[in-house]
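Handout, section 4.2: multi-component inputs.
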Amino acid sequence: MELRVKALETILVEKGYVDPAALDVLIETYEHRIGPKNGARVVARAWSDADYLLRLRADATAAIAELGYSGRQGEHMRIAENTPEVHNLVVCTLCSCYPWSVLGLPPVWYKSAPYRSRAVIDPRGVLRDFGVELPAGTKLRVWDSTAELRYLVIPMRPAGSEGMDQDALAALVTRDSMIGAGLALTPGKAA
Amino acid sequence: MNGPQDLGGQMGHGPILPEPNEPLFHAEWEKRALAITLAMGACGAWTIDTSRHARESLPPATYLAASYYEIWIRALENLLTAHGLVDKPELAAGHALSPAGPVKRVLKAAAVPGVLAAGSPYDRPCASAPRFKPGDRVMARNDHVATHTRLPRYIRGREGEIVANHGSFVLPDSNAHGRGESPIWCYGVRFGAEELWGAGAEPGCEVMVDCWETYLTPARERAA
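Output:
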């Protein structure tokens, strides 16, 4: 693929369809500016600020934009809140739809056939592949991103995080926990 | 279309293999593939729905064997030739051999941050009143179309409950084929796992699927 992509880029630049400098800015943006740290800030704020959580529930797109995160593949945001009763898991069975504005580019497993095929029919088994074992009484709710709405899971706030500030809380929020494929980290175990 | 993209509920694809400390890109070419795909999308020659249809139209054996960026590149090549912007001899030669075709715009470096931050909202006003409301029982139509649709096979003919009206959105089934945006209401629909998967399903689990109004019919119309 390396030569094939190089050839294609050469043709597109020679024909003037793409600006080489724009390509570099696009790559730099997703390498360094847009990623799961954005979503972690949203979750940390939701855990800390009851009014903010209400705004997220009412209009997640606007509430997330308050923190400066908006745009491509985050135009129509919704949140899905985990509770002791319900655990949420997000998938796109039809392609690779993912909330880029808050999580950046999706990992390979999210776009892979094993995840896309199994998430809807065997979500508990999928979670086991991630080392997550939920209580038998916790219901699983899977969100298939078939339209232009993009879902951000708000993981449960971990025990022992009382009194932590938003920066410290954000460090507990993993990318996988915001897809529903993981849980937030327990304080003291943050990477 | 009943293409290789419609994976929900399929079996035999193996375990999920999360990669610890996964790099954002696994090769330099993946960065370029991302960038040229986004930059060409910004040219305005096609819509995101047309792009998705180009990807799902790859031969199933190719689609399932390819990484996602490879799917993107193969589909981009097909879009470029289908729209007359690049021809096959050029792809073989790796150089431009003919004059450029018309594109609506070229994404310049200085415009990238603004374009990404603005995104492309897909909600549009709709002339008709919503047919359904939260709480309504609905059935997903059992329509197998050869064209683009976002109605996955695993819900077709299955009964669910409307939980939200998300507003009216561009209809991919129309927009992917240049037949206009045709905005229509889009609903969040809850399907019980047992309704979708039968006796082996875990009771109480559910799948939420966003469905355009044209994908749904009132549940009472279901044959007795």
